[in-house]
Amino acid sequence: MFTGIIEETGELIRLIQGSDSAVLTIRARKVLEGTSVGDSIAVNGVCLTVTRIDASGFDADVMPETLRRSSLGKLSAGSRVNLERAMAADGRFGGHIVAGHVDGTGIIRDIRTERNAVVYNVAADPGLLRYVVEKGSIAIDGISLTVAAVTERELTVSVIPHTREVTNLRERKSGDIVNLETDIIGKYVERLLQHEQKEEKSGITMDLLAENGFI
């Protein structure tokens, strides 16, 4: 589990892409501290397992489903990537619950300055935006951000100077593809409601099971 508070930006040194998978080699410094092979690091919001580590960086495998869902396969050598180690049990929870399981990608449509903030408008699929609510949380390339506004076609976030400076948002431009992970709570609630609706249609309800001693 992650918090969406980026620890550092690393540099993609090499992307070896096969027919349906890839291996990333990333130069990093801070996230290497206390990290071993088998540990998880979020790369642009995607939870990856460290397969090799040395004093200058680490390798991670990227599976087919991850390539389909994220923008990792479109990275090139020299790309700056947001990095975060999995949250320690005794750490502060500064962002929101980020699983590192990207729901899909969005496209930056517009970037503008608003006083001391930078506003990003990100277009995304309506099926993904249904889980986004105004003043709720969204992870963009692994960055925990608050949603300023949302429509059926796009979402808007307002980024403070510090967040922009310490993440790869400072290099983003209109037309760039970003990874999106919506609030996990909304997805669980929807799933539970779907089950309840199926139970009601079948005539089997939680109350009926309880009355007959099954619960």
Helix percent band: 10-25%
The parts where pLDDT drops under 50 for at least 5 residues are: none
What is the average of the pLDDT values? 92
Instruction: State the total count of DSSP E strands.
Output: 12
State the helix count. 5
Helix/sheet category: alpha+beta
Biggest sheet: strand arrangement: 1-2-5-4-3-6
Order of helices and strands: EEEEEHEEEHEEEHEHH
Largest sheet: 6 strands, antiparallel, barrel
Q: Could you give the distance between the termini?
A: 32 Å
| Oligomer state of the chains in this structure | single chain
What distinguishing features does this structure have?
215 residues; alpha+beta; six-stranded antiparallel β-barrel; six-stranded antiparallel barrel; 5 helices; 12 strands
Overview in brief:
19% of the residues lie in helices and 38% in strands. By secondary structure, the protein is an alpha+beta fold.
Please give a structural write-up:
The chain is α+β, with helices and mostly antiparallel strands. Helices cover 19% and strands 38% of the residues. The chain is built from five helices and twelve strands. It has helices at 64-69, 126-129, 161-165, 184-202, 206-211; strands at residues 8-17, 22-27, 40-43, 46-53, 57-62, 80-85, 104-114, 117-123, 137-140, 143-150, 154-159, 177-182. The strands form two sheets. It has a six-stranded antiparallel beta barrel with strand order 1-2-5-4-3-6. A six-stranded antiparallel β-barrel has the order 7-8-11-10-9-12. A hairpin with a 2-residue loop joins strand 3 (40-43) and strand 4 (46-53). The longest helix has 19 residues, at 184-202. The two termini are 32 Å apart. The model has no long low-confidence stretch (mean pLDDT 92).
